[in-house]
Amino acid sequence: MDNKTAAVTMRNITKTFGSVVANDKVWLNIYRGEILALLGENGSGKTTLMNMLSGIYFPDEGQIAIDGKEVVIRSPKDAFDLGIGMIHQHFKLVDVLSAAENIVLGLEGKLDLKAATEKIRGICDAYGFEVDPDQKIYDMSVSQKQTVEIVKVLYRGADILILDEPTAVLTPQETDKLFNVLRNMRDDGKAIVIITHKMHEVEELSDRVAILRHGQFIGDMPTKKTNAQEMTNMMVGHAVTLNIDRPEPKDPKPRIEVKNLTVRSIDGILKLDDVSFTANSGEILGIAGISGCGQKELLESIAGLQPVEKGSIEYIEDDGSREQLIGKDPLSIAQMGVALSFVPEDRLGMGLVGNMDLSDNMMLRSYRRGKGPFTDRKSPHALAESVVTRLEVNTPGVSTPVRRLSGGNVQKVLVGREISSAPTVLLTAYAVRGLDINSSYTIYDLINKQKEAGVAVIYVGEDLDVLLELSDRILVLCGGKVSGIVPGRGAKKRDVGMMMTRLGGDGKHE
Amino acid sequence: MNNAARNPLFHVARRGAVPAWKAWLIRGGAILLSLVACGLITTVVTGENPLAVYVTVFNGSFGTVRKFWTLLQNVAMLLCVALAVTPAFKMRFWNIGGEGQVLIGGLAAAACMICLRDSLPNAAIIALMIVSSIAAGAVWGGIPAFFKAKWNTNETLFTLMMNYVATQLVAYFCVVWESPKGSGQIGVINQSTELGWLPVIGGQRYLLNVLVVLVVLVFVYVYLNYTKHGYEISVVGESERTARYVGIKVEKVIIRTMLLSGAICGLTGLLLVGSTNHTLTTTIAAGRGFTVVMVSWLAKFNPIWMVATSFLLVFLERGAGEISTNFGLNQSFADILTGVILFFIIGSEFFINYRLCFRKTAEKED
Questions:
Q1: Are A20 and A78 in a shared domain?
Q2: For B227, which of A18, A346, A375 is closest by C-beta distance?
Q3: Which residues in B lie closer than 8 A to residue A334 (C-beta atoms)?
Q4: Nearest residue to A489 (alpha-carbon basis) of A242, A267, A251, A283
Q5: Labelling A258: which of A146, A447, B191, B218 has CA 20 to 30 A away?
Q6: Where does the pLDDT of residue B220 fall: very low under 50, low under 70, confident under 90, or very high at 90 and above?
Q7: Looking at the partner chain, which of A63, A70, A355 has a beta carbon nearest the beta carbon of B238?
């Protein structure tokens, strides 16, 4: 890479957590005036490596040099002093304070909000951020909050920026805006590292890619000289196909009919407003929308977990008879003979119990079976064994607590359990969030198999590219309302993106 | 490594899964170290021979047959309360109202002994004592559970305050039933007739209690580990959202578990009044409702290990008492030693979960 001195040189970095080697003798250079995409599957050690740079972890071995000078980074403050700033996946902002107050929070010296506001405006103008320093955080969208986080880091003088999956929560339009800002910062001579799973973003944005696999550094190269297929192969370690199947639905019949569904949160906020649609058997209905637009409430209403203000949700049997699902809890829905499976967004907080092992987690759905006060542990154990073999779950054994598994394997366990009961309806929320490419494709396959078996699948997703490739129909939610339902085949990403931000998506304001 | 001097002296790293034998090795090492530390403190502060002190501690529990049975009785009672609160703890319901639940069970038993002694035969009195003390404990545990389930009140505060209500109730009845008049104490109930006294088995007045607690131990162990109820308790404790997701009625589980928890506490009250003391005072629970928090946590909510932890705590307490009489030392000194030992035991958990990486070892690995 030319003769420039690297802004950051990480040499021979090793970090272990117990017996798990998260980073194994990793070498990495980060240059100024360049956007580096750090790629790797889940558990390949990307975030761990960056956390060591930002002072959250301390390496067991190896050295870090900034501008050629060796440094010791013991704490996030050390990292800040060296000009390193990280924007995490989960924002760390105080809701009731304004943007400017959040940005100066924790800084030493006299508090001069006016001067700070001026400086913030200066930063925003220089790079093209759109932030009102006086706006309160609770009034902001996810993308605005992220902007505040970036400005906060810049305000503290960072010129080496690390972004951990920054686009996971953004709409396509917001992503474009963020990328423009990042390019401006690069042109200003800052060093930028972005961690992401999305190949097209890597190709669009980055100048160079570095790839980790199983904690080891595999290689780096200019983005122009490579392509998605090659990068994926390097990440996974063998060739993979990057196509999602979409078989034609066979004999679709209405299975779930939702009419005029209206849901309010406990605080009285309208979450779903007059939502109506039908989900058919043998079909994948994709749900698109900016996160927090009622997707969670929609699925939980169907699953019997969410109190409903008004409307109806009817389950339609093959013979045409109808059952009302509203007002029933998950147990009574199951007792009615409705085979409904639900893969919730919060895998370890809702779908599974992190501290329990695989067999005990399989038991969650089946422990009531059998007479008498005692539980049957044999069949869940057998189910766990079969899920592990069928879905190739990478685990030391079925008696390992699931929280010790990586994200992809946790999801395989959850999906494996949910489809084991031969459902007729499968609800999935962000089924591949945080999963690497390999695991994601396993999950798409599993979902497609369910569809072919005649299951009505409702798939809430955040990656529009995937939704467009996988769904037979796409329902777009915008602020709790149905913005439109479009056929998945032939739908344009841009149009769906517009519908996500504006009802109907036709560009006319309401 | 030219910048070794600037590296921190050590940093803390998380261990992965630690094999059980290694964990117990660390705990055993901690106990040994604590004994050494206690020995040092004893010699430096009092000038006594630490070995002599340890022998005395040992004799406090095993010196005579009587002392040994007292030890067993105290372990059994502590264990019984610990077994009572553990299902609640496993559900992440912090029942620190064991004290009150024991007292109210004891009060119910005493009430049967005193109020029914003139009207019913002994067998009927004992039967009623069993039913009423268990029911009283269950009610006392069920009230905070009901409020928690219905209105999500804080169970820690609620159960704590229920302790004071129970203490005041007992204090009131101590005056109502006082004997002799004016003493403010109940004294031994039915001393001459022995009505309502639980039977003595095998000539050992504490044997019945030990056997009953053994049965409770097996029951709680099986209940928690092999039944549907026990499974529901674990799920609710780990995550209420998961419990609702699979259709477990969380409110029902909370109330049911606390009824059980209170019932076993009530049973302890029955044993204390009907078998051990044959009287009722406000201090009959002797702080066990609070000590069990430590018993249960140290054993990681495993009923079998709780036998060991309750034994350890009672052993230390008996030994401490023995030191203070034999060496003319203050009771507080014994408490200091107990504190040091517990500090080491609890502190060892840190070393089971984490290890320290010193700079030197890191360099050697290079």
A1: yes
A2: A375
A3: 247
A4: A283
A5: A447
A6: very high
A7: A355
**Is A1 within 8 Å of A18 (Cβ atoms)?**
no
State whether A42 and A189 are in the same domain. Answer: yes
Residue in A368, A369, A371 to test binding to B, most B beta-carbons within 10 Å: A368
A404, B17: Cβ pair inside 8 Å? Answer: yes
Q: Are B99 and B163 in contact (CB under 8 A)?
A: yes
Q: Does a structural domain hold residue A2? A: no
- Count of structural domains within chain A: 3
Q: How far is B15 from chain A (nearest CA, A)?
A: 4
Instruction: Select from A221, A236, A251 the last residue of a domain.
Output: A236
Q: Are residues A260 and A175 located together in one domain of the fold?
A: no
Is A3 domain-assigned? no
Strand partners, A270: A264
Chain A nearest CA to B90, separation (Å): 12
The DSSP line for B175-220 is: HHT-SSTTSSS--STTTTT-TTPPPPBTTBTTHHHHHHHHHHHHHH
Q: Does B365 touch chain A (CB under 8 A)?
A: yes
Q: How far is CA A486 from CA A475, A477, A483, B19, in A?
A: 7, 12, 10, 55
Residues A19 and A130 in one domain: yes
Nearest CA in chain B to A12: B366
Q: Do residues A484 and A470 share a domain?
A: yes
Which residues of chain B are within 8 Å of residue A346 when distances are taken between CB atoms? 241
Specify the DSSP class assigned to residue A76. Answer: H
Residue A320 lies in a domain: yes
State the greatest distance between any 2 C-alpha atoms of chain A, in Å, as a whole number. 75
Q: Which amino acid is at A202?
A: V
Q: Are residues A374 and A431 part of one domain?
A: no
* Domain encompassing residue A408: 351-421
Query: Which chain A residues are within 8 Å of B239, Cβ to Cβ?
Result: 349-350, 353-354
Cβ–Cβ contact B9 with A under 8 A: no
A507 touches chain B (CB under 8 A): no
Indicate yes or no: CB of B13 within 8 angstroms of CB of A60.
yes
For residue B245, give the nearest of A351, A354, A367 by CB distance.
A351
Task: Show pLDDT as tens, one digit a residue, over chain A (510 residues).
Answer: 445 678 899 999 998 877 778 899 999 999 999 999 998 877 788 888 999 999 888 888 899 999 888 898 888 888 988 999 999 877 888 989 999 999 988 887 778 888 889 999 998 888 888 888 899 988 888 888 888 999 999 898 888 999 988 887 777 778 888 999 999 999 999 999 999 877 888 888 999 999 998 889 998 999 999 888 888 888 888 777 777 889 899 888 999 999 999 999 887 888 999 999 999 999 999 999 877 788 999 999 999 999 999 999 999 988 888 999 998 889 899 888 888 999 998 888 899 999 999 999 999 998 988 888 898 888 999 999 999 998 888 888 888 899 888 777 888 899 999 999 889 999 999 888 777 777 888 889 999 999 999 999 999 988 888 899 999 999 999 888 999 999 999 888 888 888 887 776 654 443
pLDDT in tens, B315-347: 988 887 888 788 877 777 777 888 888 899 888
Number of CB atoms found within 10 A of residue A97's CB:
15
Question: Quick check: is A398 in a domain?
Answer: yes
ipTM > 0.85?
no
pLDDT per position as a tens digit, A37-67 = 998 877 788 888 999 999 888 888 899 999 8
Structure-block tokens of residue B84: 């009572």
Same domain (yes/no): A49, A169: yes
Residue A376 forms contact with B (CB below 8 Å): no
Does A488 lie in the same domain as A461? Answer: yes
Residue B225 C-alpha, separation from nearest chain A C-alpha, in angstroms = 9
Four-point Cα dihedral B275, B276, B280, B286, nearest 10: -140
Last residue of a domain, one of A236, A253, A285: A236
Give Cα separations from B90 to A84, A164, A355, A401, B232 (angstroms).
Answer: 43, 36, 12, 17, 10
Q: How many contacts, defined by CB atoms under 8 Å, are there between A and B?
A: 92
